[in-house]
Design goal:
Length: 413
């Protein structure tokens, strides 16, 4: 018999069996791990690619199901959410292969952890808040930082800053508890700052009050004068509307060039001595004062003259001569035009005066006249004919030999 015939006989005697469908997937390694108090991860494997589904609930009746919408796999994890803490759950896993054959595990259980115990409010540290900046008694101007430290055993829910008992800004719900305060909106004067902390348990506490002074107005300068004039010195005095320091800028032009250091003390009335000045010179000066808030006030320009020399100055019949270059220390002359006595109502500048200008302490010229030898007379009137205002005036005198000298006097109507 040929080999081919033998093979045919074997095939007829033992016909091949038809292959059946693949078996359902075998499930193994089922486990559940809690994730916090409200979730769990359920994991298992199958011996062939399959889908994944979990039935779960508080009893073996389940009532909830989660299907994992992903390609068939042999390792599966399905996450459950929205669970109740401290609860025993029943569950089973199910997997279906490509042929639609389903396998399911038996009933299993897991328990979600209970939440950590929360202390009663009475057992927790009470809320506490303290304002850190500004310090008590501070002087505030412009924009100022306000900050507070807050603590609470139940956790800080919010910090509310108060100004004079009213909300300064919306409450802060997270640290740092800091805000910028526009003090211009508060107005000058004394104000009360405080802070209120509220904790997660609903309790509140208020900080001690911090009183501050808002000052957004520079000091007002007044009564500026130069006195005690000598050949090389003067005392500059002025007042301010509030305590402030003192500084003088001075020089022979309105650009000044010299200045005194700011005083250490803040007062409302002061006198600043200037020394080492040139004799028989006209000085420009202005005064400056800075208050406790750092706000600066600056006066207009003023003038004074050093080294009064009466040689070129006379007062009617009481005119007196002095040696050339003498440093006169005579009292400042007072003119009273209203007396009309021909002596104290006018200033007479003798034959040595070639030209005379009268200026006020702001440097404004109120009188000017030249002479070829006749005395120059000023009767207290301006060029317009009206009486000059009462106050201190300086005669700027040019002598016939070209010297310039100065005489200071007061005009009293």
């Amino acid at each position: 018999m040929s080999p081919g015939a033998a093979a045919l006989l074997l095939a007829l005697a033992f016909p091949a069996r038809a292959q059946g469908p693949a078996p359902p997937p075998a499930i193994g390694g089922v486990s559940a791990a809690a994730e916090g108090g409200t979730g769990a991860a359920v994991s298992w494997t199958t011996d062939q690619p399959a889908d994944a589904e979990v039935d779960y609930g508080p009893s073996a009746a389940y009532a909830n199901s989660v299907f994992l919408n992903s390609p068939p796999a042999t390792s599966h994890t399905v996450r459950l959410a929205g669970l109740s803490p401290g609860t025993l759950y029943h569950y089973r896993v199910k997997s279906r292969n490509a042929a639609g054959l389903l396998s399911a595990s038996g009933d299993l259980t897991f328990e979600t952890p209970s939440p950590a115990p929360v202390a009663e409010p009475s057992a927790q540290a009470l809320p506490l808040v303290l304002i850190m900046t500004p310090p008590p008694g501070a002087v505030a101007s412009g924009t100022m930082t306000v900050s507070a430290n807050a603590s609470a055993g139940a956790g800080v829910a919010s910090v509310q800053f108060l100004l004079d008992g009213l909300d300064l800004a919306p409450p802060l719900t997270a640290g740092p508890y800091t805000l910028s305060w526009n003090t211009f909106l508060a107005g000058d004067g004394t104000h009360a700052l405080a802070a209120v902390v509220r904790d997660a348990a609903g309790r509140a506490a208020t900080s001690p009050i911090v009183r501050v002074t808002v000052d957004n107005t520079p000091p007002v300068i007044g009564e500026v004068s130069a006195s005690a004039l000598t050949a090389d010195g003067a005392v500059v005095s002025w007042t301010t509307s509030e305590p402030a320091d003192a500084q003088v800028e001075y020089g022979m032009t309105p650009d000044y060039g010299d200045e005194t250091p700011p005083s250490a003390m803040k007062v409302v009335s002061r006198g600043v001595s200037l020394t080492g000045l040139a004799s028989e010179a006209l000085y420009h000066f202005r005064v400056k004062s800075r208050d406790a808030a750092g706000l600066l006030a600056v006066s207009p320009d003023y003038v004074f003259a050093t080294g009064e020399t009466p040689a070129a100055y006379g007062a009617g019949a009481r005119s007196a001569a002095a040696p050339a270059g003498a440093q006169a220390k005579a009292p400042q002359r007072v003119l009273s035009p209203a007396l009309a006595d021909g002596v104290n109502d006018r200033a007479v500048f003798g034959p040595d005066a070639r030209e005379v200008s009268i200026v006020d302490v702001r440097g404004r010229r109120v009188f000017h006249e030249s002479s070829n030898g006749s005395p120059i007379v000023w009767n207290g009137r301006e060029a317009s004919g009206g009486l000059a205002p009462s106050g201190v005036y300086i005669a700027v005198i040019t002598t016939r030999d070209g010297r310039r000298v100065y005489q200071t006097f007061t005009l009293a109507k």
